Amino acid sequence: MNTRVESESVVSLSGQAVSIHGESVILLCASLFYFRVPSELWKERLDQVKEAGYNCIDVYFPWNFHEPQEGKWDFNGMRDAEKFLQLASEAGLWVVARPGPYICSEWDGGALPSYLYAKEPFVRIRNNDPAYLQHVARWYAQILPILRRHEVTSGGSVILVQLENELDFYGCSDPSGYMAALRDMAVAHGLSVPLIACAGQGGLLQASGLTDGVVPTCNFYPDDQDPHFEKKVLHYRHVLHGMNYPLLVTETNRSHYLLRRLLSTGTKLLGPYLQVSGTNFGFTNAINNWGKPLAFLTSDYDFGGMISPEGHLRAEAQEAKLLARLIRAYGRAIAEAEPDSGGTWSVQGETEGVFGPYVLRLQGGGELIFVTNGEDRAKQINLLGDMGAHASSTGALTLSASRSLALPVNVPLSLWGMPGQLIFSTAELYMAGQQNDGTVLAFHTEGNHGRIALAIEAVYAPLAQGMQVIRREGHIELLLTGEETAYCRFELKDGRRFTVIVTNRLKALHTETINLDGTMTASMFQPKLNNSDPSPALEWQFVSGEGWKPPLQAVSALTDEAKLDFLERLGIYRGYAWYEANVNLINADDQLRGLLIRQASDVVSLYADGTYLGTLTPGGASVFVPVDGRDAKKIQARVEIWGHSNFNDLRLPALCLPSLKGIGGVTAITAIHDITANWSVNPSGERLSPSAATKIDEALWPVVGFGSWLSADHPSQQVFRKKFVPTAKPSAWILHFRNLQGYAQLWVNGVEVGSIHPMDAFIDLKPYVTPGQELQLEVHLLRTMGQPGGEVVIYEGVEASTFTVAAAEEAELKAEADHRIASAAPGHLPLSLDSGKTGWLFAAINNSAQGKGWRVRAAGSGLKLTVFMDERIVGRLWLPGGTGRPTMTGGSMNSFYLPGPWFHDNQAQLSIYLEAADEQAPGKLESLEVISV
């Protein structure tokens, strides 16, 4: 049997529903990333997700995690993807598998191996490029057979496979061709479950190419209290329904408040991103545009989801249970429900900040009315609408602050095996149980009032406790009085029992079982207390070092006879590199004014003859570092690859996919010419060649400072010209437009150089310079109102040469730690480290009494910390201080996690590489607080 035909009978996607084994389901799907959780804890995390009520997980498979060097594959230990999928199946969780090739996920390079960036000829990543697709084919040949073995059609639990990730953010030139190529690879490897492609900013065409056999999905990251959110989602639901696809939201925020709002729109997959937090171990962090714009991702990877990196269940896990039980209570009726755009319902009362009502028509009859409070105070409201012949108003109900409710109307009780109808309820149904001799429904309410109306025939007067029963013509009303727990039991004509239980919301959050006699069990959620194990007293040892000197174990990557190149082209994809070069001043009387570091990233700590000049994070741009006239024969730099960008942003070179790391070159600057003044300007903005006959004699062009011409036009555009004679002695000339804003294009001697990047406004003039001969600079400047032109500077100097580069990844750094510990002396905290110095801090640490490990919180300033737990890097921190420190984001900026399973014989060795990275003050480590988890 054709596997894709077979799959269609197992996993079916239609405009109405997602069906698995013939059962329509709402997929409540939590992100859980095996590569951020110790493998010993995979089962625990999977069980926690299942216990929280989720029936599905989504998981990325990072290409560069499994291919750390080109052609060297690793699927062992934490990389054992097959074991993880087996455990997910055993936990009873469906899996949405996301093998990329690009995954984003705030992971180094979005999981694209950085050796691709160094390929020649240039490889067009994330495009329909044969050279790129050849490499993707090698990755898919490794990962797709694993996914195939764990598909639901093969007895596993993989139900969907996502190709690529948010391609609409990238600007692929041929999304249809590219996605078709990925699809064909997937089919060739025997994948039979549906293939999907997610849109990150709503570009269904740009993300999926609308390729046959690839289902578009949506990722939404709104403000949780966006009043217009449902309308936006309903637009995409309508578009996809027209293609006979369900609305699958593969990523969104983590609050179940927002997930309820999504549910109201007919969404069939609710995919909150990162409900299970983790850690970026080793050198797997990324950089991205979450700063100004540059940001470094922390090792701690925690957006506040329901499970912490250590495995603590947070309060949101109880909200997850409540939503999951609501979905299970309605079963197929809600799984096949469709949104009603008829607008027959309205809300009265305190309506400001209330969103909705939004109506979901249940399969088999009845409706759910969703109403949401978008403010931080409770509201008293009244819902008006069609409830048949019985009523047109629900009566008053309390809508608590930041709460979203789903209220049933005209729902046939046959949904739960009973005759009759649930006419309306101002309490939310959250649990249903069918037992041998009857059915029990559990509701929760807020405030001290509420109503439930039932059309039901009982043979005796119902037995009620904590509520009032009123018989009206054709139905029974239960009036709620605000009791913590109330119930009403009915005896039906056929001898079965029907019980309604109503609790407050707090009790509903902790309900475990409900019974026909009106009793129930609940387990109160206890937040994790961090005082169960006393903090150990650690005996520290410390040894300091020179920050510019490479470790003895560093690997030579470039000798002084070779040409300087970026690190990836030298075979260095992660970790540290140490540079050294000659300054090469031509004349003894030349004064060194500064160093121009070109195309530098990520972290560059710069030295002149061993004297620390500062730590920079230029984001791949060039940067000028003044040296105050000091003499220097050699320059040194310690460069760390924090990570490759997981996102594509043109504002900084290092934020682009692809981008290369390290240093592109160094120029020793001997002269600085400020040429901001006295530019000729053509106010019309018309560019004329210097030799052409001009309509206005250039001699009549006004002379102004660069960019200072005031114009009544908006936007305004002018052409600025200036002549400059380069000095004969230097061998390098660099033009810098400092603080330029607006769009500018440069010509030199009539030759077009190109556009000037405002955040990397350095232009190498060397190709256009003949020493001693005049240059004509011409800039076409387009600005909006108020944008400054900035200052214009020309740097002259000589290129540094005879570079050497030595590199150290995780293994070489640990070898250095093992070498340095022999010379370490007893130390203590607080600790101070002179600017630019490095050091190693060591201590043995025992596991916690519970075997859960520890979290360690650092306090201090101006220090970078690379933390080893035995052989592994478990954290990379950068404490506040220093002008070079970028925005740190993604999780805790000042702590790291020591996983309990990684202690051997109850003990581990901490080795912490310290870098004093503040040029203005010594680095200080005040304390390392060891906290029980």
Please give the structural blueprint.
Blueprint: H1 3-8, E1 11-13, E2 18-20, E3 23-25, E4 27-31, H2 42-51, E5 56-60, H3 63-66, H4 81-90, E6 94-98, H5 130-149, E7 158-162, H6 175-188, E8 195-199, H7 204-208, E9 214-219, H8 229-242, E10 248-252, H9 256-263, E11 269-272, E12 278-279, E13 287-288, E14 295-297, E15 300-301, H10 316-330, H11 332-335, E16 338-340, E17 346-349, E18 354-361, E19 367-373, E20 379-384, E21 393-399, E22 404-412, E23 421-425, E24 428-435, E25 438-445, E26 450-455, E27 463-465, E28 467-472, E29 475-480, E30 485-491, E31 497-504, H12 505-509, E32 511-514, E33 520-522, E34 541-546, E35 555-558, E36 575-582, E37 594-598, E38 603-608, E39 611-616, E40 623-626, E41 634-641, E42 665-674, E43 679-682, E44 703-704, E45 716-724, E46 732-738, E47 743-748, E48 751-756, E49 762-764, E50 775-783, E51 791-799, E52 801-808, H13 810-820, E53 825-826, E54 831-833, E55 837-846, E56 853-861, E57 863-869, E58 872-878, E59 887-889, E60 895-899, E61 907-916, E62 923-932
Parallel strand pairs: 4-5, 4-11, 5-6, 6-7, 7-8, 8-9, 9-10, 10-11, 14-59, 25-31
Antiparallel strand pairs: 1-2, 2-3, 12-15, 13-14, 16-18, 17-20, 18-19, 19-22, 20-21, 22-23, 23-26, 24-25, 26-29, 27-30, 28-29, 30-31, 32-33, 34-53, 34-55, 35-52, 36-41, 36-52, 37-40, 37-42, 38-39, 38-41, 42-51, 43-44, 43-45, 45-50, 46-49, 46-51, 47-48, 47-50, 54-62, 55-61, 56-60, 56-62, 57-58, 57-61
Helix pairs in contact: 5-6
